[in-house]
Amino acid sequence: MSATGNDPVITSYAQAPARTVSAGGVTYAYRELGPKGGIPVVFFVHLAATLDNWDPRIVDPIAENRHVITFDQRGVGASTGQVPATLEEAADHAYEFITALGFEQIDVFSFSMGGMIAQDLIVKHPDLVRRLVLTGTGPRGGKDMDKVVGVTYYDILRATLTRSDPKEYLFFNRDATGKAAGKAFVKRLQERDIDRDKDITLKALRTQLKAIQKFGRSAPSDLSTFTQPTLIANGDHDRMVPTVLSEDLHRRIKGSELIIYPNSGHGGIFQFHEQFAPAAAEFLAN
């Protein structure tokens, strides 16, 4: 572990310092960890998520060798402003945040809605992203992408009735393995006990769901123009953003790699973090 000056490098997400940067009249909340220098890996988070929703078992192995940045979109968690009505606008805000930090090139690690925003970002700024990780996501205009909304509301209701976290239903299969993986994942998200983020509001969640629906119902982007090395991953039984959409992305992005984990859902990368985290870290290190 190298150090800058007298400060040891923080490689644990549970201890990553909370920071803010102002741009476009709003304040973006973010956390950073790992050794500074070189191209950072910026994490694009999922629907309804804040800074506290990243699995430390995925973040920490990447932060061992890379400068990692996670951030709250406008109107979410500790970031100010309004949640945008479209994912294209969310991509504009992400660009605003990245340039406010002074970066001209980044690597992207994205999950679910974050992967949709990352695609829109690259369509507009093709040279910004060097390497791309797309997990649990799908392309603009992808088949049944707009069904995310119904599945989400249904699983929030199921979780409320059983007093559990909706992510246990949305991200994991309901067999014994999936249930155990879901509980373990939710527990890992509690490892940070200081300076936690604010939960997303119901209004913000609804706005994001509508934006995903629009993304699903609009004309596809031309992903054949993507030249960056791309790693795509998902579980084989994703009810939220159907697994076929990961395969669709793989067909559309030339030279991309695809990993599908068995007997797992939307959160396949979290269920299989012991296999996936080193694979992602190695892919981003090349």
TrEMBL record:
Q: Which SUPFAM superfamilies match?
A: alpha/beta-Hydrolases
Q: Which Gene3D superfamilies match?
A: alpha/beta hydrolase (3.40.50.1820)
Top-level taxon in the UniProt lineage: Bacteria
Alphabetized Pfam families for the sequence: Abhydrolase_1
GO-annotated molecular function: catalytic activity
Residue ranges of every copy of the AB hydrolase-1 domain listed in the record: 41-270
What PANTHER family does this protein map onto? AB HYDROLASE-1 DOMAIN-CONTAINING PROTEIN (PTHR43433:SF5), HYDROLASE, ALPHA/BETA FOLD FAMILY PROTEIN (PTHR43433)
| Protein name, entry field | Pimeloyl-ACP methyl ester carboxylesterase
Q: Which organism is it from?
A: Nocardioides kongjuensis
User: What is this organism's lineage?
Assistant: Bacteria, Bacillati, Actinomycetota, Actinomycetes, Propionibacteriales
